Amino acid sequence: MTTPDYRAILDTIAAEVAPLLPEGRVADYIPSLAAVPKHKFGMAVHTLDGRRYAVGDAAERFSIQSISKLFALTLAFRQQGDALWRRVGREPSGSPFNSLVQLEHEHGKPRNPFINAGALVVTDVLCRHFVQADVALLQFVRRLSGIADLNFDHEVAASEAATGHRNAAMAHFMKSFGNLEAPVDEVLSSYFHQCAIAMSCEELARAMLFLANHGVNPHDGQRLLTVSEAKRINAVLLTCGTYDAAGDYAYRVGLPAKSGVGGGIVAVVPGELAVCVWSPGLDANGNSLAGGYALERFTTLTGRSVF
Amino acid sequence: MTTPDYRAILDTIAAEVAPLLPEGRVADYIPSLAAVPKHKFGMAVHTLDGRRYAVGDAAERFSIQSISKLFALTLAFRQQGDALWRRVGREPSGSPFNSLVQLEHEHGKPRNPFINAGALVVTDVLCRHFVQADVALLQFVRRLSGIADLNFDHEVAASEAATGHRNAAMAHFMKSFGNLEAPVDEVLSSYFHQCAIAMSCEELARAMLFLANHGVNPHDGQRLLTVSEAKRINAVLLTCGTYDAAGDYAYRVGLPAKSGVGGGIVAVVPGELAVCVWSPGLDANGNSLAGGYALERFTTLTGRSVF
Amino acid sequence: MTTPDYRAILDTIAAEVAPLLPEGRVADYIPSLAAVPKHKFGMAVHTLDGRRYAVGDAAERFSIQSISKLFALTLAFRQQGDALWRRVGREPSGSPFNSLVQLEHEHGKPRNPFINAGALVVTDVLCRHFVQADVALLQFVRRLSGIADLNFDHEVAASEAATGHRNAAMAHFMKSFGNLEAPVDEVLSSYFHQCAIAMSCEELARAMLFLANHGVNPHDGQRLLTVSEAKRINAVLLTCGTYDAAGDYAYRVGLPAKSGVGGGIVAVVPGELAVCVWSPGLDANGNSLAGGYALERFTTLTGRSVF
Amino acid sequence: MTTPDYRAILDTIAAEVAPLLPEGRVADYIPSLAAVPKHKFGMAVHTLDGRRYAVGDAAERFSIQSISKLFALTLAFRQQGDALWRRVGREPSGSPFNSLVQLEHEHGKPRNPFINAGALVVTDVLCRHFVQADVALLQFVRRLSGIADLNFDHEVAASEAATGHRNAAMAHFMKSFGNLEAPVDEVLSSYFHQCAIAMSCEELARAMLFLANHGVNPHDGQRLLTVSEAKRINAVLLTCGTYDAAGDYAYRVGLPAKSGVGGGIVAVVPGELAVCVWSPGLDANGNSLAGGYALERFTTLTGRSVF
Fold first, then answer.
1. Can you tell me which residues bind substrate (chains A, B, C, D) (predicted)?
2. Is the pLDDT of residue C131 over 90?
3. In terms of Cα–Cα distance, which of D189, D114, D106 is closest to D154?
4. Same domain as B131, residue B57
């Protein structure tokens, strides 16, 4: 397979998505997210052989939100391995990311680690293994990215906590089923902080390379996951990483990917590269509207996809 | 990547699955399926460069059941392209393959073409394009496999019709939402015949090669789907092909796959090969119990997976 | 308690509801129902001591639709007694009258005999006891009312059958759970005919007197139900008789009542009288809009209610 | 109607229910409830003309639990009248008393004031009108019963709070929909205290007389509700007062009634009397098993029922 001209491709995509930027709907449930201008667009590609490409606002930090669920899953998976799946499933949910219906039907076991309920269980696992789970996660993301100055946006975390009644409902609900060990308040606080890490497209692309690299962190050469484990995380990403649009993403994009309501989406081409796109306007499923189109074009123009 | 020793790998797998054969539960809702002995196991691998491997009962025909949904989808997709998705979704269902709940919540539009309701819509599309939809599908499968003497098992089709009240319920239900054009009886009859095609592992592996081959039928060199379309069918297989265990299959097996209650499972390694495994004992999700384990071992031993 | 001046009360109500008549929405899923003028309004009161009052279009026949479910239940209950409740519940449904969701969650046992699924089970019971269940029911309603020339509106019955895919879906669905004995087509045909009986307010009030009279048919003096059985039918009417508005009817009207999409509503004051109101415009729950208001005023002005 | 011999009837019932006492299952989610001996049974009848009858453990106090929901509803209804129904429905739920599914489907508006979610909304209303809602309710129940020394069982309230994660989940969930005004912790604390009021059968029968008496408190002659309002509360009791068994209670018992997991059930015969029965063993719906049978026998032996 020939190497694509990533520079030209990113430029093409940036031009193509421009008309889409006004169409999405910026998340507005907390002021810090609502204040992000809709016209922002950035995209970064980092390859395993060390090349880096970026376009637009790829250096600007935004709230990674649910993309943190992927880092939290990786950290918890390293602690517990397949035992983790006794407490959280790995099936697509077939319903919105914050539904309590499924949780009631399945007795407090969330369908997968990328819906909110599942991420709360993963956070609970981290609370058990680390004195300060949110700090441990932040340090893990610093390690994955090789970037020391990553931090929480404390204003975002505080806003999430103040409005997070649905997440509190889910946490208490799972607690009532016995599927939460730490105190509800501790889990929620840690969860809200994780979601409030601020990163740029370039930083996220760097932090995702270990998944493209079959589990080895390219920044320090250390193995974080076995080859098999890395593949499995990719599998969960592909089937569950984009809320109730996972089938649509597999169909249109064809890469393991994780999105967040901050407008970021990360994806990997196994064995080759990591890519991150950011645009704050969301579609009806809560995924970045322009970001999804950008990734679709990226796999079409590069001929890359897992299928 | 080195070429695996498929012969040795199939022998290893056949030995490993032997203890599992008694554990599954053979489908018993119709006599013809219930009569199949539980100890049957066959597996076949056909590569794009023409090598063929088989083990066990790989030459014995069985009822392909829901594997036919993949062939029907391919045929309907060739007729309608992306317009097809206006009538059937491509998201994992998050519920059993024959649930009416989702259908009610989503106003008669099935979640994907591989749950029964979705396959009925696909069949309805075929009923519109062909005078005899079931015969058209049979001829298409003959063409895909290059095997002329494939046929319906009419006894199975008759039994399905006699006991198919849940499928009839779904068809009438979708008709009430306006999402079925042909008469209910015609759609059901065609659907029951499609499911009743009898094929062996070797024949199914042959018939699946076009998907591994990016849309070109290797038996006659004709393009059936564009490269992009073939990838997209693979994507739908990966996210929706194994009922409510698609996430589990992606995690454990990592290949686009389609299963049937007859105990068969087909899968492809894009660009490389097609594989079919058969063992009639099913797990709780309705997938072949030994078959699922065999595919998991296959991807582990060969190092093949899309991730 | 003083005897109300029913004549004056009916006149008052007829004047009060006039402005409401244009507001409802006439059922339009079949032409015969859609053709009924919206301004129709009739009301009839028949007391156990033989007085009869009527206002407006009380002598005009309309399609009784789901009111027939009450007569069918009474007839089936006479055949089977409490054994009937093994196949159909007697709890309010908490959902629309034609939902399949509940049926799936509760394995094919309908919540009560007044949602469509429950009425199909009741009809199945009649199909088992009578050679022609619909004719048997018609004769029973003739007997209840003492009116010999009641008949099916065959045009309505045919239209119902042609558009009745949701009812067919429910029948097949229950058949798949083993909760339907007769052939689906026979049950459906009988059901559609029952719904298509045509009666006037005066005729329905006459036909309901046996329930006000603790089970004795006042027209021939024969006991149809024991005192206890009559009370129990009234209880099921109060809790389940008006679709998902039973709580609202108990609150506003406070009488056992049964409605139909033809715009009729029947109710009884136990020990005293039967009342029927008709107006074809329906509210969001499928009950006659003006009819519901008329009954609410009736219990307020007469001081009658079971509470 | 002749006056029944209530003394003899209560003795008969006490003898009849004895064999049932071991069958129920005592609520065990908190130690104070689990410790109540299963063989307890008491029943009290208070008539509007001043007669009082009791049998068994009718003088022993128990935790009234959800019976408090009736008193809270009455108090909130006095404050808000029909405006209350904008925030809570009055339809039977068709599902367990503590389900979150309905709440999600209906956007945070509980189906009725007698499921837990609805009672939390009612409590929220009280929190808005009173500085200390739980104390206000306690004083209201003292007034209804004319008994000054009624109190909370603080141990029960503390246990409820410690294990009340499902109620916390519901409160946060409704808060997320904007249907809770007071802080979640305040509403929960007040709710848990209300449920923890301890009363005997005799005291509860006394406290219910105002509903039999069309809204006038017989202990002080003051009108608490209009005649119409009292009827309406009775209507909500009949259709929603016994969890997902309201249809069954209407059918078997035929009286407005409210039950609690402490094993108590209160009921009224409008215009005549109030009755309370207590036995801690519960049936599958969470209603007192022996208590339900006792009420069924009571209406059969007395010939009283609203139908």
1. 66, 116, 160, 167, 191, 243, 261
2. yes
3. D189
4. no
| Min Cα separation A185/chain B (Å) | 30
Q: How many other C-beta atoms can be found within 10 angstroms of the C-beta atom of residue A31? A: 11
- Identify the pLDDT of residue B96: 64
d(C-alpha D40, C-alpha D228), whole Å:
37
Pair (A41, A129) in one structural domain = no
Low-confidence ranges of chain B (pLDDT < 50): none
CATH code (residue A178): 3.40.710.10
CB A13 within 8 A of CB A43: yes
Answer yes or no: do A166 and D184 touch at CB < 8 A: no
User: Reduced to 3 DSSP states, what percent helix, strand and coil does chain C have, rounded to the nearest 5?
Assistant: 50, 15, 35
Decide if C181 contacts C124 (C-beta within 8 A).
Answer: yes
Per-residue pLDDT tens over the stretch D158-185 = 999 999 999 999 999 999 999 999 999 9
Question: How many CB atoms lie under 10 A from the CB of residue D152?
Answer: 19
Question: Residue B1: inside a domain, yes or no?
Answer: no
Alpha helices in chain D (DSSP H): 6-17, 31-34, 67-80, 101-105, 116-129, 133-145, 154-163, 165-176, 184-195, 201-212, 227-240, 246-252, 289-302
**HEC per residue, C96-164:** CCCCCHHHHHCCCCCCCCCCHHHHHHHHHHHHHHCCCHHHHHHHHHHHHHCCCCCEECHHHHHHHHHHC
Residue ending a domain, among D195, D226, D249, is: D195
Residue reference for tokens 């018993």: B28
Whether D169 sits inside 8 A of A184 (CB atoms) is no
D74 within a domain of the structure (yes/no): yes
DSSP C2: P
pLDDT value of position B130? 97
Mean pLDDT over the full length of chain C: 95
The one-letter amino acid at A107: H
From chain C, pick out residues whose CB is under 8 angstroms from the CB of D297. none
Report the residue from C103, C165, C176 with minimal CB separation from B176.
C165
- Interface B:C, Cβ pairs < 8 A: 53
Are residue C145 and residue C110 in the same domain, yes or no? yes
Instruction: For residue A84, give Cα distances in angstroms to A89, A113, A168, A189, B278.
Output: 9, 10, 22, 21, 31
State whether A94 and B90 contact (CB < 8 Å).
Answer: no
- A29 classed as catalytic: no
Whether pLDDT at C281 is above 80: yes
Statement to judge: residues A75 and A163 lie in one domain:
yes
C95 pLDDT higher than 80: no
Contact with chain C for residue D305, Cβ under 8 A? yes
Domain identity same for C88 and C181: yes
Total domains in the fold of chain D:
2
Q: Give every CB contact of residue D173 below 8 A, 6+ residues apart in sequence.
A: A100, A165, A166, A169, D100, D103, D104, D108, D117
Considering the domain architecture, whether residues D147 and D213 belong to the same structural domain is answered as: no
What is the domain extent for residue D104? 67-195
Are D168 and A165 an interchain contact pair (Cβ–Cβ within 8 Å)?
no
Residues 6+ apart with CB under 8 A from D125: D76, D79, D80, D84, D87
pLDDT in tens, C168-210: 999 999 999 999 999 999 999 999 999 999 999 999 999 999 9
Confidence bin at D34 (pLDDT 50/70/90): very high
Q: Is A300 helix (H, G, I), strand (E, B) or coil?
A: helix
Task: Please indicate, yes or no, whether residues A209 and A220 belong to a single structural domain of this protein.
Answer: yes
Is A307 a domain residue? no
User: Is D66 marked within a binding site?
Assistant: yes
A158 and A225 assigned to the same domain: no
Residues of chain A with pLDDT under 70: 1, 96-98
Q: Which of D139, D165, D195 is the last residue of a domain?
A: D195
Which residues of chain D have a CB within 8 Å of the CB of A175? 165
Is there a contact between A33 and A282 (Cβ–Cβ < 8 Å)? no
**B40 lies in a domain?**
yes
Whether C86 shows a pLDDT value over 70: the answer reads yes
